[in-house]
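ugh finaly. both done.
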Amino acid sequence: MFDKMIFNAQIDFVRDAERIARKHHLIQCTEGNEIYYQSSALSNIEGIWWKIRGRTAQIKCSLHKLFWRSRYGTLDNSQMFTISDAKQIISELLDEWDINPEQVRITYYEVGLNIPVNHDPIEYISLAESIGVLRNKELFNDANFEKNRQKTTEKSKNIKKVFKIYDKGFEARDKGRMCEGNILRIETIYRRQSINLIDFFSEDSINNILHTFYRDWATISFRRRLSADKGVKSSQIEKAESLLRLGRDEYMKHTKSDWKSGYLSDKQYRTIREFIQSWDLIKSHFLLLPSSLETEYRSNLLSLFNKAKI
């Protein structure tokens, strides 16, 4: 389930830098009087990027892609990738890197799940509105992609945890890679971290990460269809939709603003205000129904998560 990760390892530059650089085919660079090492353009093919500067060796890679390359020869992260797979590949990488794991800290990591779906992922993404028990993290269209191909929560520099839902096939093709079928990708990104690698891969830590991942993505809110009892007027259904979409206080605020601006008559304003005030008495006449896409998502999330966490 782990994808891209960034590792910072503390080393002795005089003793270790040149040895590591030779082993991993890094190029020597200079800036003023300072010498440092970093990967060449071959890192795009190898799937690992290195930079050694001072006492820090930084490594960026996708555990998912490297696992797939080691087993099947291609840098692919569109398939199933379990926790057991992640533990295997990190153990292999640590042996290959020849760096003391006690001196390695994880500063960035992604936890995700690929969900094969029956329809174009754009249909699921378009319905996704927010995430969180309180629906307090809104999902926005990512301006770097076609509309409803990728949505994320706010990702300003000070936010350490970001949620992302996107069309995995579209993303792969956009980068010139092949990806068959309809795959919806859900992902949690943790930035600006500082976690000891050994502690990170402990059983307690992994269990906590997995529990949090499932809890978060089970709370995703999809736009639903409003159903009403027979005899309920269409105007009341419209008011109910607005109230459920905005919330009681926000709907009242918008209504009052429209009334003061002259968009609503006194009668229209009173009618909406009375509807909001009586909502607790009449809300049983309305029901939000999940779409078949939401039902499919929730079923697949549970079954695939149970496979991936092993």
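ok and the 2nd:
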Amino acid sequence: MRSTAWGAYKGITEALRARLASGEFQPGSALPSEAALSAEYSVARNTVRRALDQLSEEGLIITQPGRGRLVNAPGERNSPTRPQYQRIATDLRKRIESGDLAAGALMPSESALVKQYGVARGTARQALAALQDVTVSVQGKGRYVKPA
């Protein structure tokens, strides 16, 4: 790795790419934080961020709000990834359409979604907000599936 900041991100990009290829980080697992990588490579966070952005552009890693930077599965490297809240909303919408969550049923709470999907509370809140067309929120009671 170069000792100067110029081009240092390229060396970090190569090192991280090699670590990904070796299987040190498994698909779906989180990479170390920017701060941890900055300390490991003795560079500024912006340098690490530039290397991580390069890996993201290559589709090797993805960024998920509330979860950080994750190793992308090899089969998904060229496909655009949807935000986690959209995946959760899609799952819930399928449950509503299948009748698993019938009209009048109480929707899972933000806390329940956080536990089930391992996401941040804000992500769970976004997922529920994306279902406003098929749910209704009752102040102090929760969110329910709208009658058909």
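summary for the 2nd one i guess: The first strand starts at residue 61 and ends at 64.
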